[in-house]
Amino acid sequence: MSVPGKPAQADSEGCTGTMNxxxxxxxxxxxxxxxxxxxxxxxxxxxxxxxxxxxxxxxFFAERFFTxxxxxxxxxxxxxxxxxxxxxxxxxxxxxxxxxLFQVYDVDGNGSIDPDExxxxxxxxxxxxxxxxxDEKLDQLTLALFESADKDCSxxxxxxxxxxxxxxxxxxxxxxxISAAHWLTPPTTQGHLHRPRPLTAAYWHNHxxxxxxLATYLGLHVLLFALAASAHRDLGISIMVAKGCGQCLxxxxxxxVVLMLRRCLTWLRTTWLAQVLPLDQNxxxxxxxxxxxxxxxxxxxxxxxxxxxxxxQSESSSYQFWELLLTTRPGIGWVHGLASPxxxxxxxxxxxxxxxxxxxxxxxxxxxxxYWTHLSYLPMWVLLILHGPNFWKWLLVPGTVFFLEKVIxxxxxxxxxxxxVEVNLLPSKVTHLLIKRPPLFNYRPGDYxxxxxxxxxxxEWHPFTISSAPEQKDTIWLxxxxxxxxxxxxxxxxxxxxxxxxxxxxxxxxxxxxxxQGRPQVSELSPENHQFCNIKCYINGPYGTPTRRxxxxxxxxxxxxxxGITPFAxxxxxxxxxxxxxxxxxxxxxxxxxxGIQDDDMKLHKVDFIWINRxxxxxxxxxxxxxxxxxxxxxxxxxxxxxxxxxxMTSALSKNDMKAIGLQMALDLVAKKEKKDSITGLQTRTxxxxxxxxxxxxxxxxxxxxxxxxxxxxxxxxxxxxRAHCERFGFRFFQENF
Length: 738
Known about the structure:
By secondary structure, the protein is of the alpha/beta class.
């Protein structure tokens, strides 16, 4: 689907209906080519072909558009009719578009729109936007829009009344179009937002720590290679290359584990080093070092093969090539001549680990393959110690720290089994787990943990963000999206009640827990999807994430896409608890107010929370939490509110689309009247489509609430777009990896 309003944006003069001859010829050529693709041999488009090309969910709009495009009433659309219709919709003036829209809504063609026609249109609008509302709400929306437009109370909406109603929504008519399939509009000549070139001020602002670390890493490798190669310059070029690569590998193969010391990294986030080191990119640096290790190992191996080939050809050598490469007979190495066979074994293990670490294996239901092959680092270390005489010296410190962290983690996680006490199955196959919180489990908003449920998989540990606030003392919340084998097994097991271990006191225990917490309910509980249970599990953590920086920000912009809201759910709940703690009420007049929100741990002046969902039901995950947050700020003025919510539903078509403008107008009218959104029930109006990030960030910058930091959790594709915008506006950008 093309983006609503794109044609008008692609043609800066679209609202005036003018194009230069070159653009017009290019556009007509594009339409002709697409028409021939759709029409086939008969050179006309029938209704079914039109529906398929237009890609509409509801046949009402396809039939109405087809009827209006078919100017001669022949039952088919010719190339000329298609060009005329597209010219009007894409390059026509606002009045032409308005007349077309009125004809779409005027189903019986009598020159006016009655309430039943409007209800039919709005019902189709709901289906096009994937919005499900009860019939009573549909009737309410219909009457709200009809009564607003029917100024003379005649019982019909005339063309003039519809025009006057649309004028209440500035900018809509100028960009009004149909978000149809790609054949409808030619490719735009405007490119996407280009990322700033490296080493610009904006790029340096967001990447200086990474660039400095990369420069240091590169410089260290050049130094190590040069020193080792220089020390063996009398032995020939192949030995120099092999020894240089070997010295670099000594460092890489020992330091690569440091990047995965999660407890150490979590501790470092609490120190001043967090401002210097790129701790948020530890996984990316770990992957980079993996690529470097593979590359250096291949060069190291080839250099030795060349050296062995030269030795085998030498008259003074008593060994053949295969003996030098595969056996201990030549006595190469510091432990019984094991350098050559251990080198071959190391290369095979490394290539196996590298292959099984690819994203196509990790993210396509084969995580176990990645997990078990990655454990080969243990035999690799043994082989490296036998292979190189100096590797144990490089491994001594990082290996000891790594071993201690693993032992501590194993002891802590297996010290006592915890229990999953409640499960709630949410829309879009999300499993909400409530786990009994251990006494010494202290974490910060946005932290994550590793979870093991033996009844699902005995040896598998998976990381999940904690969605509950640290102030919640009795339980830990996890919201788990079903996207892989393990998470799907978890959801299906609870759905079929295979894992549920019920006892006679489960309701009493749950009631006691709820009362002791005194917390708001974030998830909407339904009896058929809500279970009390007592299932053994183990956790390992908590571990820090980039979101720990949020409370040290001045103006934080939190952006969650889908289940990417989970780290922000914990943060928003923590904010809510802190607000409640600072709330004061006069005992005489019952007037309530908030004391200053700043303290040593919280420097926030403003928080903008943006949640983007594709489907309507996804908002149910945390709608109660967001409702409570709005209630806490109900007495604040719009300018004085500390937290501002922004909700977007990408499956809903925008106001610029002819298939949605009536619905969005009705939703705006009802929201203004009832002071709440019809889709989520929040005071915040759910916006259709995707955010216009340029406008969003312009508004944030204009508020001037302090230094802006943007925190994102969601898809990598959207992360690239947001990073580019942040670099344009000079905002710091932090991404949660999940």
